[in-house]
């Protein structure tokens, strides 16, 4: 009986079970799953059929077709204020690489004094009439 209880005891695996943060960030299966989810959630205005996105070089594609290099801090004059991207090395990429990204950051809350919301300078969602 003592042997069976000893076999049932929890043994801490230590660092062997820890997933490195780099591996978790660039997990291909997780990226595919989250991309599928984003595409399903994205709503498209059928009057223009424009989906805000970034091209293969990381440029933001505006509704009129012009491409603009824009940092994820949403300041038009920013040369890049983030850590270098793990995939492309650009300092413009914030939480995810901008190359072929199929979504944009519309706005975010700054924790400065006074707190405020910074909005995307080139994107304004069309207001739908109910």
From TrEMBL:
It comes from the Eukaryota. Residues 2-109 form the ARF7 effector protein C-terminal domain. It holds the Pfam family ARF7EP_C. InterPro entries: ARF7EP_C. This is ARF7 effector protein C-terminal domain-containing protein.
